[in-house]
Amino acid sequence: MNSPIHTLAGAITEKFIAADPAAAARALETFATHEVLLLIGSLKAQMLVACLNPMDPAKAAAVLRRLPLRQASYVLAHLDVPQAARLMKEFSAPYRERMRAALEPAFAQLLEQAGSYAPGSAGLLMNTDVITVRTESKLTALIERLKALPRKKLPPVCFVTGKAGELKGVIRTAELAFYSPQSVCGSIMSPADTLSPQADAETARQAFLKAQNDVLAVADEKNILLGVLLKQALPVAADKKSFWKRLAE
Questions:
Q1: pTM for the model
Q2: End-to-end CA distance of the chain, in Å?
Q3: In the chain, what are the domains?
């Protein structure tokens, strides 16, 4: 059991991470691994993700390695793809195999492919923390999953997949109230707009413009859902010179 001082230290650490994850990560990097675990070991997964995402990969891997495998695999699967791939490289070969076995096969394969994605590509910018349901699932099951999430974590869309993880469509969270809870997800889904993980930022911008929404699914050549790209994740495009600035040159 944690002592009162450890409980207090954990509460302070949680507030630190919530206020500035990058600064918290830099500060924790200066501690020994066992000291970091005392401070963050009892925190919720979303706090661990926020802290480990900006942390030095070697340090983050050492911390994750000492968590229970089930917890560690969950946290790894919710990290940004580039950081998760870096951590996998830091693990020893035996532990890497154990972690790979604990991950969803599609995500484990994604981490192996991450090194081939170009900087700024959809594969590196996407978020893998998505809500998915099977085509045959009842809407009530999806609603119960969403109820368990904090309001600020509610996704704008949920994805409908087949048995092999292939993308079938999307259900917009804001439209759930219009359907009966007993509806089958596959019967109420809408077509999904997708991007290849190799798509560059300009291709993604054009896809967002065409789709007229702020969320695009990222799927591989077999249409297996890999993650979701948010419009806000795209790097800011270089400003084109205005007509008046060109005249002044």
A1: 0.67
A2: 70
A3: 4-115 (1.25.60.10), 125-233 (3.10.580.10)
